[in-house]
Specification:
The structure is a single chain. 51% of the residues lie in helices and 9% in strands. With 381 residues, the protein is an alpha/beta fold. The strands form 2 sheets. It has a 5-stranded mixed sheet, with helices on both faces. It has a two-stranded antiparallel sheet with strand order 6-7.
């Protein structure tokens, strides 16, 4: 109340609580409800967790992983603002007892010392976990479906949002919270690789800080954790068994190569690196493949419309659905206000209220027919 510069009566009015009820709650005669606490936190510009425990909200330290220059302070501020909405939503759900138990993750095998081998093994474990959960193959799986599979299988929230220029993605994990943010882009293959790369950091427990990815270049990182994440991404998106199932001969034609780019939804350069590593193509063929673009490959296989649809999806915003659903259910149950849902979605409270609780419209286009006197309505188109 002191921080809000409000008297007890004004504070009670601000949180929608009768003054006598607030007085009884402050004296310990009446318990604050979860809805009371949510409104107090809103009005007092704090969190329910702080009200209950005195703990400051958990927020990540941001560290840049970059092959170019580090991100500047303005970009760091933008990233903190972006992650704030996700963290706050999870804090509210946790305090309401609605946080879901996260599945156990695969982990780096301690017997493997080389980071490359760790990335391969981690991808194999992840693929086995996905198959057990009902995702038997990666090739041909649209990125939208892949995102949902990763969320279900590994308990990670995946957001596709606008991010500072030059930043492809970011990952962060804490107790009860796993987040991957990928940038909206006109290059769907880069977005897909970033998604897999960030998952590699999550599974390897590299994302204890909010770490950002700029200018991902598969095969060109010097940081060994980056090498491991790149190897993981390549093996996850282009599994050896799935490659071998479609490439049965050493003499792969250019037509087959362009089809593989479309099928596995990776860039020609990423596919070239993977096929070279598997010994499927020669360095000369790899160089020729790298000279193409993803769009070229779609055009050459007669699937330009598929490229356009994939690009359209990669440019659209996407928020993880589960937190929004749980926040809405908490609101319906009277356990919280619409403010946490509004903060999470970035939509004004009143707009959400209008969408969820629309005012009844006057019955336009209704005229009385032959039975109007009896109360029947005739609807005109």
């Amino acid at each position: 109340m002191s921080g809000a510069s409000a008297s007890q009566a004004a504070f009670a009015e601000g949180i929608g609580l009768a003054p006598d009820k607030l007085s009884k709650s402050l004296s310990g005669v009446r318990r604050f409800t979860s809805l009371d606490l949510a409104r107090i936190a809103d009005f007092g510009s704090t969190t329910v967790d702080w009200l209950l425990t005195g703990r400051e909200p958990l927020r990540p330290t941001i560290a840049a992983r970059t092959s170019a220059s580090a991100i500047d302070d303005q970009d760091r501020g933008m990233l903190k603002d972006l992650v704030e909405r996700f963290v706050t939503a999870h804090e509210v759900l946790d305090l309401l007892g609605l946080a879901t138990e996260l599945p156990e993750l695969p982990s780096v095998r301690p017997d493997l010392k080389r980071y490359v081998d760790q990335g391969v093994a981690l991808a194999d474990d992840a693929l086995a976990r996905l198959a057990a959960a009902g995702t038997p193959a990666i090739d041909g799986l649209d990125t939208a479906d892949l995102v949902q599979s990763l969320e279900r299988t590994f308990g990670v929230d995946v957001a596709k949002i606008g991010m500072p220029d030059g930043i492809d993605g970011a990952a962060w994990q804490a107790d009860g919270f796993r987040l991957i943010m990928i940038a909206r882009t006109k290059v769907p293959t880069r977005q897909r690789f970033t998604l897999a790369h960030e998952l590699g950091h999550i599974l390897a427990r590299d994302a204890q800080d909010l770490l950002t990815e700029t200018q991902l270049s598969p095969g060109r990182q010097k940081d060994l954790t980056e090498v491991r994440a790149n190897v993981f991404a390549a093996n996850l998106l282009m599994p050896r068994d799935e490659i071998n199932a479609v490439v049965r001969e050493k003499d792969v034609t250019d037509e087959q190569l362009t089809s593989l780019v479309v099928r596995f939804q990776v860039s020609p350069s990423a596919l070239a690196a993977r096929l070279t590593q598997l010994g499927v193509i020669s360095p000369e063929t790899a160089a020729r493949l790298r000279g193409l673009t993803t769009q070229d490959c779609h055009w050459l296989t007669g699937q330009s419309d598929l490229y356009e649809s994939r690009t359209t999806w990669s440019l659209a915003n996407r928020l993880p659905f589960r937190p929004a659903q749980l926040l809405y259910e908490a609101y319906l149950a009277g356990d919280t206000t619409l403010r946490p849902l509004a903060a999470y979605t970035g939509v004004d409270v009143e707009r959400i209220r209008e969408a969820l609780e629309p005012e009844p419209d006057p019955q336009e286009g209704v005229s009385g027919g032959t039975d109007a006197d009896e109360g029947d309505l005739v609807y005109q188109p």
